[in-house]
Amino acid sequence: MRTPKLGLLVVCVAAVLAAHAAPRVRAQSRPLAITATSNADLRTWDSAVDRLKRDGALRARATSEDLLLPGRVHERLDQYVGGVRVFGGDLVRQTENGLTVSIFGTMYPDVAVDGAAAMPPEDARAIVEGLSGAELGDTRRPELLILPDEAGGARLVYRLKAFTLENAIDYFIDASTGAVVLELGAAERQSVSSLGVGRGVLGDDKKVSVASLGGNFVAVDLLRPPSIRTYDMRANLSRTIDFLNGVVGLTASDFALSATTTWSDPVAVDAQAYVGQVYDFYFKRFGRRGLDNKNLALINIIHPVRRDDVYTASDDIIGNFYLNAFYAGNGVMVYGEGLPAGLTLGGQRWNYFAGGLDIIGHELTHGVTEFSSGLIYRNQSGALNEAFSDIMGTATEFFDQPIGDGPMKAEYLMGEDVVTPGGIRSLANPGQFGNPDHFSKFVTAPADAAHDYGAVHTNMTIATHAYYLAIEGGADRTSGLSVQGVGTANRDQIEKVFYRGFTQLLPSNATFSVARAATIQAARDLYGAGSAPERAVTQAWTAVGVQ
Which residue in the list 363, 386, 416, 534 is annotated as catalytic? Predict the structure, then answer.
């Protein structure tokens, strides 16, 4: 393999910066954040992007039509050097009738890697298997990347995910030495259709779309465009891990099933019903057809462990498979078992995680992010990844449930139907759970598992609070700045603004500042300059200290 060199990308970007010091282009040594919305900035960057595409330094990953604004098109482009993708280097160009409306992105204009990969991808996979203790299937192939570092250097790495009983790790392996240079979280966190009924985790009656198979009924939804399937792992945790790592496939014998159309397992009932409701929310509100907008199959994994085994389980297993739910990629969700009745943690009762509509909305939104902006799960982009999931998880509640306090009511708490009393986070008052409501309280931490990859679950509430203020209005408790929200009757306006900004305008390595610019642009695109949504979003980000 030839040594990757940046070549013309340095020349083009340097020429762009020299020709026009755009006020919305923050020229740093590396990375370079691009927030081009003015006519002057757009002319400069549009020309540069076209040249970089012609020279192969930018390659189109996907082009999609705007579902909320007919006539708009979004082009996602990845940065390449010597035919190798640069991790975190990408941008999004929005056009209308061939004219560019906005460009947001992150690029590494002076990245260079000396040398070539000294090991084949098979060796990288063996290293990951040795490090994780997991067996990886043949479908799990490492991707060769250029990984920039914070010191301004870069190296060739192989990237590969592995799931174990204790953790889910996204490994970045030095392609020359085999050393681990970065770890990120990999878990963010012939039939006939029938209609079944069952009682959910909270005791409510639900209709469930199921299918008949071999004289029984299985949790397979064939009524919606994507297949929605719920698999009962029956406390076989090793089989669950093997499935997540691609070692085994799940079969019909793994389906959650019932002898009649009346279902007795509340976890299967809620998982199957709530995933359908979240799909409907995304389609009816935004016109989106599933996670990838192509009706990717949705897979629920329930009962990976047995509740009563919690007393002998390790802390890691408890943290991952009892007190957690996570998105495992490619449409797969895993729902924690919670704690036995009478056992509490932190004074709270932890029920089956499939019993929370906002939790399922949160996890599925990680899938939407995977197939759109691909926000990298560390530091500010990781916090934005988590924030968008809380935002859309909350939005699903307001779409399907009556407003109010108590079980199965829509409010601005996360997980409150499963973790009682109180839930785990608040969009309205982040400080209630010790989370920041203002960027001055941003927690800087190492981007490793021990520190939650840069405190992503802590810093996320800065962005979710901006979302809350843009709807409800009020003052930020830290800054004291007031926001004139659009009001609850216009909630869908802010939902569309944040959906559009996060899925169609943000690059993978976005900062809070870029998220501010992208959502303001989204509001302007949808509702016009000077509109109430644009004002509310601008004031909200200012109130939480994001400029």
Answer: 363
